[in-house]
What we know:
This protein is α+β, with helices and mostly antiparallel strands. It has a domain at 53-69 and 89-236: Muramoyl-pentapeptide Carboxypeptidase, domain 2 (2-Layer Sandwich). The protein is 39% helix and 13% strand. It has helices spanning 53-67, 76-79, 91-102, 107-120, 126-133, 138-151, 153-156, 181-186, 189-207; strands at 19-21, 159-166, 169-177, 212-217, 222-227. The protein has a five-stranded antiparallel sheet with strand order 1-2-3-5-4. β4 (212-217) and β5 form a beta hairpin. The longest helix is centred in the last third of the chain and has 19 residues, at 189-207. The chain is globular. One of its GO terms (molecular function) is iron ion binding.
Amino acid sequence: MVVLSLQVVRFPTPPYQISLRRQSTDKITRCGIAEPSGEPAPLGQKTKYNDGFFEKAFMTLFARKMEKFASPAKSKTETKKKRWFDFGYDYESFVDVSKRVMEGRSRQQQQEVVREVLLSMLPPGAPAQFRKLFPPTKWAAEFNAALTVPFFHWLVGPSEVVEVEINGEKQRSGVHIKKCRYLENSGCVGMCVNMCKFPTQDFFTREFGLPLTMIPNFEDMSCEMVYGQVPPSFEDDPVSTQPCFTDI
C-alpha cells in the first residue's frame, strides 16, 4: 500500500459556505472500493479500487481525448500504443495524462483544455438541449446531483447526495465526495483546482446553464459539489491562494 505523507493545510472558511445537512438514511455509493471496510482508506493511505469494465472504459475514453493535448510521454510503458478496443488505461495512467496536459500551460490554458475535452464527449448541440431539459430549477439541481453519484464514482470515488441550503431553501442538490480519488492519486492541489474544480464549475454554469460550486477540503481530501449554487470568481475563491502539498 502506498503511504502518503500529507501536511495538513488549514483551509479558510469560504465566504460562500453552504449549510450541508446529512441524514442518517443516506448511503454512500462504494462502487469499486476494494478496501475490506468498503470505505476509502484513512488519510495518509491510498485507497484500493477494483475497477470493472465500465470504469476502465470511461478512463480510456477520457484519457484518449486528453492525449491529444498532452506532452509526449517519457517512459516506454507510457508510450505503448493502445487500441481503441483495448481498455488499457487504468486510473494511474489517466492521472498521468492529466499531468502531461498541464505541462507548459497556464492555469487558463489548462482549464480550456478540460472544456474542449468535455465538449468533445457530447454530440453537437448538446449544451443547448441540456439547457432546455434542465433549466436552473431546484428539480434540475437535485436530478443532476442524483446522477453524479452513480455515473462519476470512477472519477472521484464514493459519494452521496446530501441536503443543502441555498438562499434559505433546503434541497437535496449537494454531493459529498468522501475522499476524492483524483486528488488522492495526483497529490496535487493544482490538478484539483485547474483540471477539475474550475473547469467543471465553468462548464456546468456557462455551457449547461446550471450553476455548480465545488468546495474541496484539502485537510481530508473530501469535496462538496453543490448544484444550483453560483460559484465565486477565481479571485474571490479561497482556493486561489491555496498552497501546494509539501510532502505527498
